[in-house]
UniProtKB/TrEMBL annotation:
Keywords: NADP, Oxidoreductase. Residues 11-322 form the Enoyl reductase (ER) domain. The lineage of its organism: Bacteria, Pseudomonadati, Pseudomonadota, Alphaproteobacteria, Acetobacterales. Its EC number is 1.6.5.5. This is NADPH:quinone reductase. Transmembrane segments: none annotated. GO terms for molecular function: mRNA 3'-UTR AU-rich region binding; NADPH binding; quinone reductase (NADPH) activity; zinc ion binding.
Length: 324
């Protein structure tokens, strides 16, 4: 018996249907994984609505999960049935069991439970590459994290703080502001209430910032650029408020020879050795206590539509986990 949440046409949460599907057999380079937990991420909304294109319809949503290997293909040598594993950036996670290429799986340390593993892979590895590779932060720097009370935001705040940064976070409500402070944000600004560039100028004594990490997109893009010091880096890694409209790149020159990048975890973990190294760094940060994964919502997997409604309404904080 195997069930999955499938989407037959793009649309709102109502297009997500709980259906019985065949239990797949792993190909030579694949493993069959029985999920114990599945992560919820905003990219799932992008695929559901059609903002991001899927290979074909119907499609099973979901990009990360954790569970136990039940079977492996004939060419798989580094995994065996019974291994605890986790993964991210592999479409098709909203199901009880699935096959996946074995080189996309990482072994989950015994000290990390399945719910934590499922909720941390995409968000945690995103935070890892943003802080360690896209713009490697240094102790003493002041940085800006948008959506600081979200899943990636909370991890970014904690990890950057542990690396010695001063963290400015933006959130949408006073309650979320308190959560961001509890997780490492030194200064928290309310979107739509605070004048972001003016407050950043005040906080930094006019120096402005070397980097802004922006997952909001359209609503914050221009203000983010205005928060940067000359030669600063704008990291636009999400579209929660909608895609950023076309930009005249001359504005980067006018605002101080700025750098702009639109990175994705898929690129940063495309090679198996990069995936392993990224996951290992994340696991170490969690095991050391520098980063604590906040699972603030859980839903039954069959109720994934409810989870999507809450996510889009900005009613969630931290991570959300779906339980098969």
């Amino acid at each position: 018996m195997n069930h999955a949440i499938r989407v037959h046409a793009p649309g709102g949460p109502e297009v997500m249907v709980w259906e019985e599907v065949p239990l797949p057999t792993p190909k030579p380079d694949e493993a069959l994984v029985r999920h114990h937990a599945v992560g919820l991420n905003y990219i799932d909304v992008y695929f559901r609505t059609g903002l991001y294109k899927v290979p074909s319809l119907p499609v099973t949503l979901g990009m990360e999960g954790a569970g136990v290997v039940e079977a492996v293909g004939s060419e798989v040598t580094d995994l065996r049935p019974g291994d605890r594993v986790a993964y991210a950036m592999a479409l098709g996670a909203y199901c009880e069991a699935r096959t996946i290429k074995a080189d996309r799986l990482v072994k989950l340390p015994d000290s990390i439970d399945f719910q934590t593993g499922a909720s941390m892979m995409l968000q945690g590895m995103t935070a890892q590459y943003l802080l360690r590779r896209t713009f490697p932060v240094k102790a003493g720097q002041t940085i800006l994290v948008h959506a600081a009370a979200g899943g990636v935001g909370l991890i970014l705040c904690q990890w950057a703080k542990a690396l010695g940064c001063t963290v400015i976070g933006t959130v949408s409500t006073a309650a979320k502001a308190e959560l961001a402070r509890e997780n490492g944000a030194d200064h928290v600004l309310i979107a739509g209430k605070d004048n972001l560039p003016a407050r950043v100028k005040e906080i930094t004594g006019g120096a402005m910032l070397p980097v802004v990490y922006d997952s909001v997109g359209r609503d914050t893009f221009m203000d983010s650029l205005d928060c940067l010091a000359p030669f600063g880096t704008m990291v636009s890694y999400g579209n929660a408020s909608g895609p950023v409209p076309p930009v005249d790149i001359g504005i980067l020159a006018a605002k101080g020879s700025l750098f702009l990048t639109r990175p994705t975890l898929a690129t940063y973990t495309a090679r198996p050795d990069d995936l392993t190294a990224t996951a290992a760094d994340l696991f170490a940060a969690v095991q050391s206590g520098a980063v604590k994964i906040r699972i603030n919502q859980t839903y039954a997997l069959k109720d994934a539509a409810e989870a999507h409604r809450a996510l889009e309404a900005r009613q969630t904080t931290g991570s959300t986990v779906l339980i098969p």
